[in-house]
Design goal:
Strand content: 15-25%
Pfam family, one: adh_short_C2
Distance between the termini: 33 Å
CATH superfamily: NAD(P)-binding Rossmann-like Domain
Number of strands: 7
CATH class: Alpha Beta
Protein name: SDR family oxidoreductase
Largest sheet: 7 strands, parallel
Keywords: Oxidoreductase
Number of domains: 1
Helix content: 40-55%
CATH architecture: 3-Layer(aba) Sandwich
Order of helices and strands: EHEHEHEHEHEHHHE
InterPro entries: NAD(P)-bd_dom_sf, Sc_DH/Rdtase_CS, SDR_fam
Family: Belongs to the short-chain dehydrogenases/reductases (SDR) family.
């Protein structure tokens, strides 16, 4: 198996992509720490997959003390962190910049950018001291394109690509690789929320718009994103760092 006995820490593990990633990493032999804002969804996965393969922890990724404790809990439970998947994120409210309160921007940036920075800050020293590792940051197709009505989200996903590129240069000397995975529209709760937000804002049928400009003509599935995460976490991607890996059906082409 590609990740036999490797330890993987995944934030946002209770979401659609997060749960798919947990299953894929466990199927490849990894021990996985599932981190999310609560443990309702993640504990169900732990019970299903078995405590010998995974455990869960509650964390607010925007809170430095909680992120530090999440890292300690992972090392104390499984002994290491070989792969870190910084996947936690929120979509925020849909609407034009002129009509959206600044508190929406602050909340989205706190989770989607500060949360990733804190994860890097506390995880990378663990990897450095162990001789290396792989960091995978979930960005988005929104991280390489503009879009009306989603400025806060797009801004946050552009920002984490910048974080990734800086981190990749800083830690390559320690054998740590850092990349982003950039999903397009994927069948998840978040995407349903975005669709509803566009409809409420009178901005049209989001799904129809996306599928019309996606060469493969459909939404992606969470497993398709998880497959890329497993590739980047494994030795199959041993010469990949500083990369932006699009998994968007050609939408950004």
């Amino acid at each position: 198996m590609k990740l036999d006995n490797k330890v993987v820490l995944i934030t946002g593990a209770g979401g659609g992509i997060g749960q798919a990633a947990v299953r894929k990493f466990v199927s490849e032999g990894a021990k996985v720490m599932l981190a999310d804002i609560g443990t309702d969804e993640t504990q169900v996965l732990v019970d299903e997959l078995g405590s010998e393969h995974c455990a869960c922890v509650a964390v607010d990724v925007a809170d430095a003390a909680q992120v530090e404790e999440m890292v300690h809990a992972t090392v104390n439970t499984f002994g290491a962190i070989d792969v870190f998947v910084a996947n936690a994120g929120i979509e925020g409210k849909i609407g034009p910049i002129m009509d959206t309160d600044v508190s929406n921007l602050d909340q989205v940036l706190a989770v989607n950018v500060r949360g990733v920075w804190l994860g890097l800050h506390y995880v990378m020293p663990v990897m450095r001291d162990a001789g290396g590792g792989s960091v995978i940051i979930t960005s988005s197709g929104a991280g390489v394109q503009g879009s009306p009505n989603t400025a806060a989200y797009n801004t946050s996903k552009h920002a984490v690509i910048g974080l990734m590129r800086c981190a990749a240069l800083e830690v390559a000397q320690f054998g740590i690789r850092v990349n982003t995975v950039n999903p397009g529209a994927v069948e998840t709760r978040m995407m349903e929320s975005i669709e509803d937000g566009f409809a409420e804002a009178g901005a049209g049928d989001f799904r129809t718009m996306v599928e019309a400009v996606t060469p493969l003509g459909r939404y992606g599935q969470p497993d398709e994103i998880a497959n890329m995460m497993v590739f980047l976490g494994s030795d199959d991607s041993s010469y990949c760092t500083g990369g932006v890996f699009m998994v968007d059906g050609g939408n950004s082409t």
